[in-house]
């Protein structure tokens, strides 16, 4: 991935646990240095382990990073983080229900691959931003309908809110 600018953000932060998930909240200065209040594609280094991901908004003008899969953060209480925003977005992990719906809609294969990876992240976030299974089923259906009508992104969606239903309440990352 190519860097968006010569912006490199470095900080140390405590590892927090919310439910069964582990994450790191960005200090205010680090979040302010990012190019967006919403999601930001970045090359990340946590305690020496490098990976590409998307930094998530916390709904309070800040950001957070999941560290569940960072082997050196599993038992750490504080981690060293290096963030380099990039222009090229990684592909999102498409949830099984949405992937199955896309597979069952061959007319949308070209639409899905033609929209930007950033927009694909937005669809995945919007579909996953509910605890209600009926709402989720409806969002998958609506996503397909919207794409068929030419929509490239979900509408009426606050991109700076925290949308992980396990970690958020009212669009804000839960406080520890």
Automatic annotation (TrEMBL):
Phylogenetic placement of the source organism: Bacteria, Bacillati, Actinomycetota, Actinomycetes, Mycobacteriales
Descriptive protein name: DUF1905 domain-containing protein
One Pfam entry name: OmdA
Domain of life: Bacteria
InterPro entries xref list: AF2212/PG0164-like_sf, DUF1905
């Amino acid at each position: 991935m190519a860097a968006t600018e010569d912006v490199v953000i470095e900080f140390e932060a405590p590892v927090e646990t919310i439910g069964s998930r582990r994450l790191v909240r960005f200090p205010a200065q680090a979040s302010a240095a990012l190019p967006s209040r919403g999601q930001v594609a970045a090359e990340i280094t946590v305690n020496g382990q490098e990976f590409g991901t998307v930094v998530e908004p916390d709904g309070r003008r800040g950001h957070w990073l999941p560290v569940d899969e960072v082997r050196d953060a599993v038992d750490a209480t504080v981690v060293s983080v290096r963030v380099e925003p990039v222009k090229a977005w990684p592909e999102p992990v498409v949830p099984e229900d949405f992937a199955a719906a896309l597979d069952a809609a061959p007319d949308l294969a070209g639409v899905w691959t033609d929209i930007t990876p950033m927009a694909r992240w937005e669809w995945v976030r919007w579909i996953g931003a509910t605890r209600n299974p009926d709402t989720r089923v409806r969002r998958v259906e609506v996503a397909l309908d919207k794409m068929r009508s030419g929509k490239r992104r979900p509408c009426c969606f606050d991109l700076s809110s925290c949308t992980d239903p396990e970690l958020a309440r009212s669009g804000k990352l839960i406080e520890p």
